[in-house]
Design brief:
three-stranded antiparallel beta sheet; MFS_trans_sf; Growth Hormone, Chain: A; mainly alpha; 3 domains; 67% helix
Length: 553
């Protein structure tokens, strides 16, 4: 039952449902009733919302504030009444593409420096002591410019994961995306002001980057259809490859046409547009999205925890840190991430330097050439992700091991070949480097897919901590590479390739031994039942005792 809508200034009729009898006892006479399909909100004469009848929640604030909140953060019932069949049953794919572009933008903002530094004129040989960096960076400054991003991302990782769990990725990702955009726009100014100002701006870029993998985990856990989980994961983690594939050639063209500051201005402007669009269009839950109909919603809900009592769902939101950290399969995923991103950071942070300084490609050609390895890896990730979802004759654990081994061992073999090649046939070097990068794309059927499957509703934490792999290696790799390549010769780079190959072999062996193919026991409802009762008792939820909680569970 629900009340009929009334105009402002009218009184609420006595036909109010019995469960709402308390409203009749209030001293202030309601002046308006705002109706949705499943809930009624009563607004008093002074514009203060007193009661949301059907849901039983109390909402405080003026009427216009609540109307605005309802339009931006609608309830499930409100979203259903506003359903618009704009994308049919494919809204989740539109969101996937939008989030992929946003993830790519944040990573591109960081990578833009690695190409822009090549464009800077090194004629003045200035250093940080002069405060003028426009004429070039020393190796020490380059190392810190990359490592400060990793340090900031490491610092931001835990609070960002907590925020994602509390308020969802819509607010968190929008805010951090805008932070990344603004800080990128300020990079040219900070470079002119001095090295430490520039480091502060790079730290802001790094802090924003901490959201990327928690966003992937949260989105896939809430929005993906279980038969398409591999496709969703492979598409979103491919931002690591898509970013350099776009940034390198675009930066090369911008440098030639407008000089190096234009690289940062273009990246920052695109980021602003993308994240404003994301903030307006995304919803934390498919149930609350006005473009998601019942057909798509039912499909997304298969295999997820649904129709659970509110109090139990609240208990399930609490991350079981202890059991997660005691699970060897989860550590296998995180260790594999370190091996993967050791190679990724070596290739994508330093491939412009290798191509221009060692192989002798000109600047405009370096941009296009640098885009080939990540582009091949991007395509491989999409293909492997789709193939992995369609293979049903072997277990998930076996698929994880096979795809991860193809990626890690295959890439390591070609890096070893590259280490023993000379630099006389630079086109052949480019081909070998491209094959090595392309094979690494098979990780979407390996550890990248294993994370969400093993952790299910806690994917934002487990997959979020995969970002530790990229940040830790981003912190270490620049110092190692710059320490080994003082003169940028092929012989020096051979050691870089061999060390990278060794790391990949070792980390893949660990992954293959400990990974499992089924969701961990701490993802099940049964695992949380005793804890849920205790939590509800401790919080003294009104009108609930242990017996009622047990009946609900």
């Amino acid at each position: 039952m629900s009340t009929m809508p009334m105009s402002v200034g009218a009184a609420v009729e006595d036909k109010t449902p019995d469960r709402c009898d308390d409203e009749k006892k209030t001293k202030k006479k309601p002046s308006a009733v705002i109706l949705t399909r499943e809930e009624t909100t009563v607004v008093t004469e002074n514009g203060v919302v007193k009661q949301q009848i059907c849901s039983g929640k109390l909402i405080f604030g003026s009427a216009w504030v609540n109307k605005m909140a309802d339009s931006v953060f609608p309830t499930q019932a409100t979203a259903q009444t506003r359903y618009i069949s704009l994308f049919g049953t494919r809204t989740r794919f539109v969101l996937m593409v939008l989030i992929l572009l946003c993830l790519t933008s944040i990573w591109s903002n960081i990578l833009a420096f690695n190409f822009a530094v090549i464009c800077m004129n090194a004629g003045d040989n200035s250093t940080a002591n002069t405060g003028n960096l426009e004429d070039g960076f020393t190796n020490f400054q380059k190392s810190w410019a990359m490592s400060i991003v990793a340090i900031a991302a490491l610092i931001g990782n835990f609070p960002v994961v907590q925020l994602v769990g509390l308020v969802g990725i819509r607010t968190v990702f929008t805010g951090l995306g805008i932070l990344s955009a603004v800080s990128t726009l300020l990079v040219p100014v900070s470079i002119r002001m001095g090295f430490y100002y520039f480091l502060a701006i790079r730290a802001l870029q790094g802090f924003a980057f901490a959201a990327n993998f928690p966003v992937i985990g949260s989105f896939c856990a809430k929005w993906s259809y279980f038969k398409q989980s591999g496709l969703f994961v492979s598409a979103l983690v491919a931002y690591v490859q898509l970013a350099p594939a776009i940034t390198m050639p675009a930066s090369g063209a911008l440098c030639d046409a407008f000089q190096w500051p234009s690289v940062f201005y273009a990246h920052g402007a695109v980021s602003l547009i993308l994240f404003v669009t994301y903030g307006l269009f995304y919803r934390n839950s498919p149930q609350k999205h006005p473009f998601v109909g019942n057909v798509e919603l039912k499909k997304i809900s298969i295999g997820k925890i649904a129709n659970v009592e509110y109090d139990v769902k609240r208990a399930l939101k609490k991350i079981p840190y202890g059991p997660i950290l005691k699970t060897p399969a989860i550590w296998a995923v995180w260790i594999a991430a370190i091996g993967n991103f050791t190679c990724v950071n070596m290739m994508f942070l330093f491939s412009p330097t290798y191509l221009s300084q060692v192989l002798g490609f000109p600047v405009h050609s370096t941009g296009l050439s640098s885009a080939i390895p990540p582009l091949l890896q991007f395509l491989a990730k999409l293909i492997v992700g789709a193939i992995s979802d369609r293979i049903h004759f072997i277990s998930e654990a076996t698929k994880f091991r096979i795809f991860n081994s193809v990626a890690f061992f295959g890439s390591a073999v070609f890096l070893t070949v590259l280490a023993f090649m000379g630099d006389s046939r630079k086109d052949l070097n480019m081909v070998v480097l491209g094959i090595s990068a392309g094979l690494l794309g098979a990780t979407t059927g390996g550890f990248f897919k294993a994370g969400p499957i093993l952790s299910k509703q806690y994917s934002h934490f487990v997959t979020g901590n995969v970002s530790l792999g990229i940040t830790i290696t981003m912190l270490i790799v620049p110092f190692v590479v710059n320490a080994l390549t003082h003169n940028n010769t092929q012989e020096e780079w051979s050691w870089v390739f061999l060390i990278t190959a060794a790391v990949m072999v070792v980390t893949n062996l660990i992954f293959c031994v400990f990974v499992r193919g089924e969701p961990c026991e701490w993802t099940s409802d049964d695992f949380h039942r005793p804890g849920s009762v205790m939590d509800l008792q401790n919080e003294r939820v009104k009108e609930l005792d242990v017996e009622k909680v047990e009946q609900r569970l």
